[in-house]
Write a structure and sequence with these properties.
heterodimer; A: alpha/beta; Rossmann fold; five-stranded parallel sheet; 37% helix; B: mainly alpha; 12 helices; globular
């Protein structure tokens, strides 16, 4: 599937999923699409429906209320679909780690392929993360 | 059926040519739009990559939807557009008839809109149904203007309905854009195309920010790829139709070739400029615009055409 993976790497459509974030990473994600960074030159497009998505950008610690919704949305995505955890929350829980409303394992909700750490990560770091994903696909 | 008909339909003005040129012009659209926003824009082969990527994705059928309609709609719409571009292209490039006149083209283009409506409504999704409903209203809004615009060349060419007869009349008598009624109808035609292609400011059915692509929301994989391809193919079909009806077709000798390409690019760029400088209008604004202003102006153009101006 080398040929197909190369096409996939050049045309990544991202779906932005907010799983109870503090809204900080979301603002940084929107920065990616502004003229300064312009991810469209890499073929990356923000889509509104998860059915069209190749990558789900997940931000926020997944608390009890949104966990079933996150799971459902991931199941609705057309595969192959990768999940990128943006920020420290999906990776470690950040400052919400010991919260009363987070009492499940994140791995049981959604399989995350790539973490981009930072609170919030800089847009450059996110571009690097996506470029690594492309590198894996192109290999 | 003659064997060259298959060639017309599948290769030269039909499927292969329109699809490839459509994806290329779709790139022009994205690139120029990006430059409007001071961005760099996608690489040249972006739309091809998108198309082949979508072909390899999973197709998800909605549990409560009507599956046969859901899957058939994009392909029927694709077939209709291929047929229309073959008919228009054969008249433009070979100056012969393909067994169809302008009325058939109007009907086939309407079937395309109906396929969008059926495909969106067959999913059972609320947003898709809303998008399908808005598509119906938009069809009601722009169809009258489209018919009036198409009637102007018919009247001016001495009530000829065949595409090649309209072209032959313009070759002998000068393009219809040179007359008052022709100019008015041409401008109305561009606005009408904008609504038929659901480009901004008339992207009411597919409003990404409020209806998340409306009728296309539940589509994934190959059917979505064909919806995207259909949309790009309309960048070829509609400008070619306008060139045929008003600009006297293409010529392939010397500077005429350059002039033909410039005509096509001019229409595309005007559409992209309108697309990038206007926000989305509400559905009642669109209806108001088409019924209160565009339709009377087109009707005036038709009356002027009857009077021979």
């Amino acid at each position: 599937m080398g040929w197909y993976n190369k096409r996939l790497a050049k045309s990544i459509w991202v779906f932005h999923m907010s799983a109870s974030p503090c809204n900080n990473c979301d603002i940084e994600i929107l920065d990616l699409l502004t003229p300064k960074y312009d991810l469209e030159r890499l073929g990356i497009k923000l889509v509104g429906s998860v059915r069209h998505a190749d990558v789900i950008l997940l931000s926020g610690v997944i608390n009890n209320k949104v966990a079933p919704i996150v799971k459902k949305i991931y199941e609705q995505a057309a595969k192959p679909c990768f999940v990128v955890g943006v920020g420290a929350c999906p990776a470690s829980g950040c400052c919400f780690k010991e919260s009363h409303n987070v009492d499940h394992k994140r791995e049981e909700t959604i399989p995350i392929d790539l973490y981009i750490p930072g609170c919030p990560p800089q847009p450059e770091a996110m571009i690097e993360g996506v470029a690594k994903l492309m590198g894996v696909l192109n290999a | 059926m003659k064997p060259e008909y298959l060639f017309y339909l599948l290769i030269f003005p039909g499927l292969l040519f329109t699809g490839t040129l459509g994806l290329v012009v779709g790139w022009v659209d994205r690139k120029v739009s990006a430059r409007f926003q001071f961005r760099v824009g996608p690489p040249f082969l972006q739309n091809f990559n998108d198309f082949f990527k979508l072909l390899g994705k999973e197709t998800i059928l909605v549990k409560d939807g009507i599956h046969s309609l859901f899957v058939a709609a994009p392909f029927i719409a694709f077939a209709m557009l291929t047929l229309v571009s073959a008919m228009v292209g054969v008249a433009l490039f070979f100056h012969i008839g393909f067994g169809a006149d302008i009325l058939v083209i109007m009907y086939l283009l309407m079937i395309y809109s109906i396929m969008v409506i059926l495909g969106g409504a067959s999913t059972g999704n609320v947003y898709s149904s809303l998008g399908a409903g808005r598509e119906i209203k938009l069809l009601l809004a722009d169809e009258l203007v489209f018919i009036l615009v198409c009637l102007v060349p018919i009247v001016k060419s001495g009530y000829a309905l065949n595409l090649e007869a309209i072209l032959a009349f313009q070759a002998a008598d000068g393009s219809f854009i040179g007359s008052v009624s022709g100019v008015i109808a041409f401008i109305m035609g561009i606005l009408c195309i904008q609504a038929k292609m659901t480009l901004p400011p008339f992207h009411i059915p597919e409003a990404e920010t409020e209806l998340v692509e409306g009728p296309l929301m539940e589509y994934s994989g190959p059917p979505l790829a064909f919806w995207k391809l259909n949309h790009m193919m309309m960048y070829v079909t509609f400008p070619f139709l306008l060139i045929l009806l008003f600009l006297g077709g293409f010529s392939f000798t010397g500077l005429g070739l350059l002039w033909s390409v410039l005509n096509y690019l001019l229409i595309i760029v005007v559409m992209i400029i309108i697309k990038n400088t206007n926000p989305r209008v509400r559905i009642d604004t669109a209806l108001n615009f088409f019924w209160k202003y565009a339709a009377p102006i087109s009707f005036a153009a038709l009356i002027l055409a009857v009077l021979g101006v």
